UniProtKB/TrEMBL annotation:
Family, similarity comment: Belongs to the flagellar radial spoke RSP3 family.
Record carries keyword Phosphoprotein: yes
Organism this protein belongs to: Paramecium tetraurelia
Pfam families listed in its UniProt record: Radial_spoke_3 (PF06098)
Keyword Cell cycle on entry: no
Protein's UniProt name: Radial spoke protein 3
Keywords: Cell projection, Cilium, Coiled coil, Cytoplasm, Cytoskeleton, Flagellum, Phosphoprotein
Biased composition, class Basic and acidic residues, residue ranges: 353-384
Biased composition (Low complexity): 88-98, 385-402
Ranges where the record places region Disordered: 85-107, 353-402
Places the protein is found: Cytoplasm, Cytoskeleton, Flagellum axoneme
An annotated GO cellular component: cilium
Positions in coiled-coil regions: 195-244
Amino acid sequence: MAQALAAENYEFKAAPEVVKPKTKYRPQVIQQSDDQKDRFRFKFILSSLLGCNIMFDKRVIRGNTYASVQTQGDKKLMTLKSFKKPTQKAQAPQAQTTYLHPQTPRPFQNRVNIDIQTDEYLEILTDKPPEQEMDAQTDYYIDKPPDRLFVPKKNGIDKETQIWEGDLFDFDQEVEPILQVLMNKILEQSRMEVLEEEEIKLMKLQQKQHEKQKADVFSNMQRLEAVQQRLDQEEARRKLQYETFLKIQKQSHQKIICRTLSKSLIGPLKQNTFKKLQDLGVYRDPLETALLSEYLPWMYSNILTDLIDEDGNKSSFNNMLFDVEDSLTNAHANSILRRKQFIENHYEEIARKKREKEEMKRQEEERRLKEIEDQRLAEEEQARQLEQQALEQQENQQQVQQ
């Protein structure tokens, strides 16, 4: 069909018409009646409530966004601004330009302007209170001029010397704030390092607890999802089984009713009715009779047996799938537990190694301090011996001199 349509020649014909000119940007002002004004006002209010297209909004300016917008203001206001008062010849060549304030616009139709206060707070206007002008004059005082600075007479001979910056200073006074700053800085740094170590330790402990809690929640969630999935599958299987049972029961009931009605209707007939009908030529095809009486019941019974076997196979297969799912779920949970135990053992091993390393560092530091202390004691002992020898030599020299 598509090829046939494509094969045909497609033509378009339209009647000629006059090309309409483009509309002006600003339509001409036409005198309208009151009904037309009311209708236009109603349309404007309705369009403002329902929304409008900004492409046709006069307030939207078209063109370059970076260019300055040249707007035509109120001609009356521009005229008032350009008005200047007459100046005299004695004034400056360039007189100050004064502007007149624009008048208040007239009210709209069916509206009235009222006087309001524009102050920051409301004030009740009352009658003009009584006023009286008073003046006062204080005594005239002359301030005393400031005293001149006493400059003693210069005597002696001027001398000069060069003292560079930092030549004169008190070492004890200058070094005290530096040492105090260094000591405070070291103490603050040490305190910050200790606090950071404690904070890192606490953060690691909280992270470990959070990961443990997260793993527990995840395992519980998976277990609950598996239980809910098994319950849903069991519910669907039970519903299908119950529907099948109702269907079979309904069919059996219908068969029993049909058989009972058939016996009640056909029972009173004579025994040789079938033979008479056969003699009359009603059942002329023995093959059809054999097919209906022997083959079809046998086929129905075999099909029913196959269906029952198939249902049994499906149920056994579903049970086997449930067992496999349970075993996989248990194996997954065991693997998660083993992984969790492995991670805990790994963290414990890392902590143990860290403690051993810190213990080794501490022992090394103690050994180094002990060596330094022993060396200091040995040097003190050696200095004491040298001092004692010097004293003995001095005593010997004094004895010899005596």
